[in-house]
């Protein structure tokens, strides 16, 4: 069964030409209607499928369109052309951090997120301690998120996401924010996910983990799909582009 299906997906962004630095310039420019836009194509004709239980890696240089593609899968942005179909309860790592509220404590954010993901209060309660422990954040359970470092927020986001156990998980550079201890814990979870038939889309510059965990890899270059296939083969193609 295909969990994710991308068909002829294109994404174009509109980039304003003039740089407006003040509110007056922005309003005045808009009134005059003289803002000109340039179209930038971030993704060109992307096609792939991901089956249940498969791990798809997405690799490519900075700006090649990886995060844009992940956002389209997560349905936070829409493709300009084409179609992205997703079957299953999806947790986007990108969205998760964004959904957190800075004025709530770590514990309160977990409760809100769990409720949004459809868990009842008993199910949430039983997971809170483990989530905080996994993220190394037990001491900070009553601290408001606005007092967290960006790394702590990402750790809380990831720990919450994996405990909620989504069917499809989108991961963007999760390991980049953690220390070695956190990375080790992530690998344990990744191993568990692989044995549990979870579907994962993993965007990373860390080619070692991509090769270790992904069944297949999509290589992007300047928004174009260079290829999709065997992880080792695609990593070799990527390295030959450098
Ligand atoms: N909202 C936006 N408006 C205009 N251009 C954008 C927007 N978001 C992304 N882009 C452009 O689209 C291109 C692809 O960006 P994207 O973030 O998807 O790349 P990436 O492969 O994830 O990069 P990185 O490896 O640096 O995270 C970049 O050139 C970026 O500047």
Automatic annotation (TrEMBL):
Keyword Nucleotide-binding: yes
InterPro entries: AAA+_ATPase (IPR003593), ABC_transporter-like_ATP-bd (IPR003439), ABC_transporter-like_CS (IPR017871), ABC_transpr_TagH-like (IPR015860), Bact_Polysacc_Export_ATP-bd (IPR050683), P-loop_NTPase (IPR027417)
PROSITE patterns tied to this protein: ABC_TRANSPORTER_1, ABC_TRANSPORTER_2
Domain of life: Archaea
Keyword Chaperone: no
Listed GO MF terms: ABC-type transporter activity; ATP binding; ATP hydrolysis activity
A UniProt-annotated Pfam family: ABC_tran
Start and end residues of each ABC transporter domain: 4-242
Any Gene Ontology CC annotation: membrane
UniProt keyword terms in alphabetical order: ATP-binding, Nucleotide-binding, Transport
Annotated family: Belongs to the ABC transporter superfamily.
Name the record gives this protein: ABC transporter ATP-binding protein
Source organism per UniProt: Methanolobus sediminis
Lineage: Archaea, Methanobacteriati, Methanobacteriota, Stenosarchaea group, Methanomicrobia
């Amino acid at each position: 069964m295909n969990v994710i299906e991308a068909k002829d997906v294109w994404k174009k962004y509109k980039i304003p030409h003039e740089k407006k630095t003040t509110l007056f310039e922005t309003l005045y420019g808009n009134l005059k209607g003289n803002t000109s836009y340039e179209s930038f194509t971030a993704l060109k004709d992307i096609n792939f499928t991901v089956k249940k239980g498969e791990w798809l890696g997405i690799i490519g240089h900075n700006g090649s369109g990886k995060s844009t593609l992940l956002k389209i899968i997560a349905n936070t942005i829409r493709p300009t052309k084409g179609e992205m179909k997703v079957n299953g309860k999806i947790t986007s790592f990108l969205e998760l951090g964004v959904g957190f509220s800075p004025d709530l404590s770590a514990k309160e954010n977990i409760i809100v997120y769990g409720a949004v993901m459809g868990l009842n209060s008993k199910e949430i309660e039983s997971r809170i301690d483990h989530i905080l422990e996994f993220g190394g954040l037990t001491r900070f359970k009553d601290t408001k998120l606005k007092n967290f470092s960006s790394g702590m927020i990402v750790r809380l986001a990831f720990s919450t996401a994996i405990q909620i156990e989504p069917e499809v998980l989108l991961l963007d550079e999760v390991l980049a924010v953690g220390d070695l201890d956190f990375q080790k814990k992530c690998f344990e979870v990744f191993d568990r996910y692989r044995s549990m038939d979870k579907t994962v889309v993993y965007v990373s510059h860390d080619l070692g983990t991509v090769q270790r965990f992904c069944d297949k890899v999509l290589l992007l270059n300047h928004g174009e799909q260079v290829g999709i296939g065997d992880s080792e083969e695609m990593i070799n193609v990527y390295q030959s582009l450098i």
